[in-house]
Design brief:
D-Maltodextrin-Binding Protein, domain 2, alpha/beta, binds D-malate, globular, seven-stranded mixed β-sheet, two-stranded parallel ribbon, 9 strands
Length: about 325
C-alpha cells in the first residue's frame, strides 16, 4: 500500500497531467472571429490578412463573421457574452473600445473590464477623403468649401461610435462645421458610395482608402499624422495643410470574452505575434499604410493599457465636440 502522502501527490500530478493535454489541445475546431462591421472595410481587410496566417499557426480555420450595426457596438455586446473558451473572439478598434462609451450612455459592455485582450494588430492613420469631383484642390480649399457650403455637403461614416464617425466628429468640431452625416454599416460600403459620388467626404483608416487614392477614384486631402505615410508619399499631412489640430490614428486589435483561460489567450497571442513577424503579411500591411506594433506593443497587457488610455482620451474630446 502506498503511503497516503504519495497518493495525494500522485493524484495532484494526475490532475495536472490531465490539464496539460487539454491546454495543449486548443484549438480543436474552427474559431469564429466577429468583425463588427460590413465586409470590405479596414477591419475586415486587416483581419483577413492576419487571420489567414494565424489559422496556419493554430492549425484550425478562422471563420470571419461580419455582424454590423450601431457603429460596431451591437456585435461587441454579443461577443462580450460569448462562451469564454477562445472559440469566439472579436475585432475591436479605437471606436468600439475607445470612443463608444462616450457616445452610448447605455453601452452594454465596458471596454476595459469585459474582455480578455489578445493583442494589437495594427495602427492605422486617418485620412480625409472625398469624391473625386469634390470642388477643392487641397486641404485649405476643402476646409473653406465646407465652411461655406455646410448645407450642401454630406459626410459618410460607419455609424455612431465608429472610428470614421469619431474622427470626423473631431474634424468637424475643429473646422466649426455641421454638415449632414450619413451612417453606413462599415466604411467598406461608405467608401463604395463615396467612389460612386453619392456622398461627398469622409474620414477613414488608410488601409481602406489607399488603393482607391492610388487608383484616382478618391481624392485625399490629408493624412492625419505628423509625417507623410511611406505608402502614399504624395499625400500631404494635415499639418502641412494648416490643420495641425487634426492628428489622429486608429488601431485594430483582437479581444476574447472576459474569463477566457490564460493559456488560450496565450496561444492566440502567439499566433498573432507570428503573423506580424511574417514577411509576406508585413509587406501587405505596410503597402496599405498600416503601422505594425513592435513585440512589446503586441502583448495583451499593452492592449489593456491602450484601451484604458483611449477611453480616457476620447471621452473629453467627444464631450467638447458636443457628442
Ligand atoms: C470598418 O471596418 O468598417 C471600420 O473600422 C469602421 C469604422 O470604425 O469607421
Amino acid at each position: 500500500m502506498k503511503p497516503i502522502g504519495t497518493a495525494i501527490v500522485m493524484a495532484a500530478f494526475a490532475l495536472a497531467a490531465g490539464a496539460i493535454p487539454a491546454a495543449a489541445a486548443f484549438p480543436e475546431r474552427a474559431i469564429t472571429l466577429i468583425v463588427p462591421f460590413a465586409a470590405g472595410g479596414p477591419g475586415d481587410t486587416v483581419v483577413r490578412l492576419i487571420g489567414a496566417h494565424m489559422a496556419r499557426t493554430l492549425g484550425q480555420p478562422i471563420v470571419v463573421e461580419n455582424v454590423a450595426g450601431a457603429g460596431g457596438t451591437s456585435a461587441i455586446s454579443r461577443g462580450a457574452r460569448a462562451d469564454a473558451d477562445g472559440y469566439t473572439i472579436m475585432l475591436g478598434n479605437m471606436g468600439t473600445h475607445g470612443a463608444a462609451p462616450a457616445q452610448y450612455p447605455d453601452l452594454k459592455y465596458n471596454p476595459a473590464k469585459d474582455f480578455a485582450p489578445i493583442g494589437l494588430m495594427v495602427t492605422t492613420p486617418i485620412m480625409i477623403v472625398a469624391r473625386k469631383t469634390f470642388p477643392a484642390r487641397n486641404l485649405r480649399e476643402f476646409v473653406d468649401y465646407l465652411r461655406n457650403n455646410q448645407d450642401k455637403v454630406v459626410e459618410a461614416h460607419a455609424g455612431v461610435g465608429s472610428v470614421s464617425h469619431t474622427t470626423c466628429t473631431l474634424l468637424q468640431s475643429i473646422m466649426g462645421t455641421k454638415t449632414a452625416r450619413v451612417a453606413y454599416r462599415g466604411t467598406g460600403p461608405s467608401i463604395n458610395d463615396l467612389i460612386a459620388e453619392h456622398v461627398d467626404f469622409g474620414c477613414d483608416q488608410i488601409v481602406n482608402v489607399a488603393p482607391h487614392i492610388q487608383a484616382g477614384t478618391l481624392k485625399a486631402f490629408g493624412v492625419a499624422t505628423a509625417k507623410r505615410s511611406a505608402a502614399m508619399k504624395d499625400v500631404p499631412t494635415t499639418r502641412e495643410g494648416g490643420l495641425q489640430e487634426f492628428e489622429v490614428s486608429a488601431w485594430i486589435a483582437l479581444f476574447a470574452p472576459k474569463g477566457t483561460p490564460q493559456h488560450v489567450v496565450g496561444k492566440l497571442n502567439d499566433a498573432l505575434v507570428k503573423a506580424l513577424d511574417d514577411e509576406g503579411t508585413r509587406a501587405r500591411l505596410l503597402d496599405l499604410g498600416s503601422e505594425i506594433p513592435d513585440r512589446a506593443g503586441r502583448a495583451p497587457d499593452a492592449l489593456q493599457e491602450l484601451v484604458v488610455r483611449e477611453v480616457a482620451r476620447w471621452t473629453p474630446v467627444l464631450k467638447a465636440a458636443g457628442q
